[in-house]
Design brief:
Protein name: Tyrosine--tRNA ligase
Number of helices: 21
Catalytic activity: tRNA(Tyr) + L-tyrosine + ATP = L-tyrosyl-tRNA(Tyr) + AMP + diphosphate + H(+)
CATH class of the largest domain: Alpha Beta
Strand content: 5-15%
Number of domains: 3
Enzyme class: ligase
Structural class: alpha/beta
CATH topology of the largest domain: Rossmann fold
Radius of gyration: 26 Å
Organism: Yaniella flava
Helix content: 40-55%
Strand order of the largest sheet: 1-6-5-2-3-4
InterPro entries: aa-tRNA-synth_I_CS, aa-tRNA-synth_Ic, Rossmann-like_a/b/a_fold, S4_RNA-bd_sf, SYY-like_C, Tyr-tRNA-ligase, Tyr-tRNA-ligase_bac-type, Tyr-tRNA-ligase_bac_1
Distance between the termini: 36 Å
Number of strands: 14
């Protein structure tokens, strides 16, 4: 975090005291779709602290919004006094869980090792590793890497029945596809089941959480512990979050919304949340923030009474962007958004934030500009005007701005010396039509 330590930031978080127990709050927030036993889980979570875990496979260099749901579940349970264990799958990441469509490409060991390190660093941001119930981080490669194939088949594989395994929804759908499923991905559920058993033995873990699409893998673990150890352990799955219109949540133009700032800029991240539809924003506040149900009820009323103010969306964007990128960075993003539309000084916006904001705007095409250019050239290059004649009319009518300064002479020339950070121009037509020029791109 920028302004305060991570522990100080985490100390501000709290569960809603209006609920009798954490299970009831999780259900109200819409975070429980399926479980091994609702009544026994509620009893367990309302009693003495238990050890629980969630696994994160390193199949990319960053976690995404789907993982954020699980991280916040881990954190809410930790705030209720329970002991979280975050598992990064250095072993299962080498295999990859089966996808609905096709076989995964296997990544090299070096690549997966690098992603393990990256994911561990990200996870540390969301949990407290201090105090009486500080979190623990584990890697399943520690108990899988030295296991021989014979020992795996004899000690673990003998407890699995092929008929049950092929009955799992994801496996069944892949078997019916043209591509089928490899033995490698077919075995993934056995590896994940072994994780639960090992964590039960090593850390007395009695609960696993995950997405409902992983339910077959989650119950693989509960069944293995029951067969081998004779103990009843728990699992619950969170729903897959979709938008009210049925589209997949967390996708922006086909790309995942990553938690890593290098893969999804804080500006883009903030804009994703502030653009949440009215029909979705209350559910998002429940899942992704620590606001109480009283606070959320107030925003629900505001959405109903004055949706045009978008107060719920702005609060959502502030809360989640601050959670992921810190309050200082979130404020810089807000300041940049205001400055783009003339409500602040563009000169105060740092280059990475300004460039990230510019990628969201119409941009000049390569070779569209020479070494010196006019506002007319820039209006046309960014597509804000279709022709130079119409661009000149806009300038003469007082509607053309460059870096928030009104330009009144259509023939005035500009160059690198006039650019923000020596390479950026923000072009504006009227009050709200923006274009962006990066000289590095425009002259490439």
């Amino acid at each position: 975090m920028n302004s305060v330590s991570n522990e100080q930031f985490l100390s501000r978080q709290a569960n809603d005291p209006s609920f009798e127990n954490i299970w009831q709050e999780l259900q109200w927030r819409g975070l429980v779709q399926v479980s091994t036993d609702d009544a026994r889980l509620e009893q367990a979570l309302a009693g003495d602290p238990i050890n629980y875990y969630c696994g994160f496979d390193p199949t990319a260099a960053s976690l995404h919004l789907g993982h954020l749901v699980q991280l916040l579940v881990l954190r809410r349970l930790q705030l209720a006094g329970h002991y979280p264990i975050a598992l990064v799958g250095g072993a299962t990441g080498l295999i990859g869980d089966p996808r609905q469509t096709s076989e995964r490409s296997l990544n090299t060991r070096d690549t997966v090792d690098g992603w393990v390190t990256s994911l561990r660093e990200q996870i540390e941001h969301y949990l407290s590793f201090e105090g009486a119930n500080g979190a623990t981080m584990v890697n399943n490669l520690d108990w899988t890497g030295g296991l021989s194939a014979l020992d795996f088949l004899r000690d673990i594989g003998k407890h699995y029945r092929v008929g049950t395994m092929i009955g799992k929804e994801i496996v069944a759908s892949r078997l019916e596809s043209d591509e089928g499923i490899s033995y490698t991905e077919f075995s993934y559920q056995v590896l994940q089941g072994m994780d639960f058993m090992e964590l039960y033995r090593r850390h007395n873990v009695t609960l696993q959480t995950g997405g409902s699409d992983q339910w077959g893998n989650l119950t693989s673990g509960t069944e293995l512990v029951r067969k081998v150890e004779g103990e009843h352990v728990h699992a619950f799955g969170t729903p897959l979050i979709t938008n009210a219109d049925g589209t997949k949540f967390g996708k922006s133009e086909g790309n995942a919304i990553w938690l890593n700032a290098d893969m999804c800029s804080p500006y883009t991240f903030y804009q994703f949340w502030v653009n949440t539809a009215d029909a979705d924003v209350i559910d998002r506040l429940k899942v992704f923030t620590f606001l109480t149900r009283e606070d959320i009820a107030d925003y629900e009323q505001k959405v109903a009474d004055e949706p045009f103010r978008r107060e719920a969306q702005r609060r959502l964007a502030w809360e989640v962007t601050s959670l992921v990128h810190g309050e200082d960075q979130t404020q810089r993003v807000i300041d940049a958004s205001a400055a783009l539309f003339g409500r602040g000084e563009l000169e105060t916006i740092d280059a990475p934030t300004l460039e990230a904001a510019g990628t969201e705007l119409p941009t000049a095409q390569p070779d569209a500009l020479s070494d010196e250019f006019t506002i007319v050239d820039m209006l046309v290059a960014t597509g804000l005007e279709k022709s130079k004649s119409s661009a000149r009319r806009t300038v003469n009518d007082g509607g053309a701005y460059l870096n928030n300064t009104k330009i009144e002479d259509p023939e005035q020339s500009f160059s690198t010396a006039d650019a923000l950070h020596s390479k950026y121009f923000v072009v504006r037509r009227g009050r709200r039509n923006l274009g962006f020029i990066s000289l590095d791109v425009a002259k490439s």
